Batch of 2 targets.
Target 1
Amino acid sequence: MSAGLDEFTTGRKKGSVIYKPIHLLYTRPNSQCEFFSYEEEAGGYIAHCRVLGRPLTKDEAIKCENYWRSCPFRRIGIQMEESGI
Ligand code: SF4
């Protein structure tokens, strides 16, 4: 990775690069989705979706906070858990 990109990136999460302008939240995210989690990192918070298996962008995290009940990925996650996948 070039030195220039280092300014905008932070650690790797399960092979994914975190791009601070895209992923870093400055307020603690709060979603009632059972597949949602977050970690404190780089002076902010990184949200993560267990169904997608990757960090969430800031826009995605906001949708997880407000529209988690109707999220299609959540339905998939529930089906996967019910079928033991
Ligand atoms: S994308 Fe959907 S399933 Fe994943 S954390 Fe957000 S609301 Fe939950």
Target 2
Amino acid sequence: MNFTETDEQQALRAAVAELGREYGYAYYTRQARQGGRLTELWQEAGKLGFLGVNLPAEYGGGGAGLYELAIVLEELATAGCGLLMMVVSPAICGTIIARYGTQEQQRTWLPLLASGAAILAFGITEPDAGDDAAAGEAANMAKYAAAEASVRTVDQAIQALGGSSMTQEFGLAAMLANVRTTRIAPVSREMILNFVAQHSLGLPKSY
Ligand SMILES: Cc1cc2nc3c(=O)[nH]c(=O)nc-3n(C[C@H](O)[C@H](O)[C@H](O)COP(=O)(O)OP(=O)(O)OC[C@H]3O[C@@H](n4cnc5c(N)ncnc54)[C@H](O)[C@@H]3O)c2cc1C
């Protein structure tokens, strides 16, 4: 796999980082404390084409891929104002509709997802989940590693800064709950390990 980003990808990073700086962690925490949402940031990111960067150009998207969408999410998260619903709306729902939706579904939903005007969630049942063990293994390991990295990073930052890390000004205590959630949702760490044990290592189902 090539980890060198193209000029376009680097330019996208820089543009998203600039937007992230305009909002930042102060905006994120202010909205959270007031019970608000990140609507202004969501709408501006949509207007700038960042939310739909992975969606087909013929439906108002950027015509790029999930890597580019990950760049958007990474840069906003780095700025302290990650948009979690990007994972659900343009990434999961958008990709599935673009790949498997009817033309009518694509015409109806993709422009709205690309502009950010609609936010989609989904309800699924997975009676045959686990068939694609190779993809499942990679996805589960990536999810596991990302959760562990985020939990340990915040914990280490708190340890390094000591008592002051718990103040509102440092903002780290508020991150604790966020990162800790990644070990539970959308799938618990234990269920990830169960999947890998059963499907990759061929061990008997343990639960
Ligand atoms: C912020 C947040 C947002 C969420 N959003 C959504 C959403 O949009 N849609 C949705 O459907 N769900 C959502 N969830 C639910 C989420 O998918 C579940 O919390 C998650 O799958 C864990 O299931 P659970 O909470 O029932 O915990 P449980 O399954 O009860 O697990 C509790 C603990 O028990 C242990 N455990 C459980 N099973 C096993 C096992 N087989 N082997 C070993 N140990 C085990 C683990 O330590 C685990 O952490 C959300 C959860 C959170 C926290």
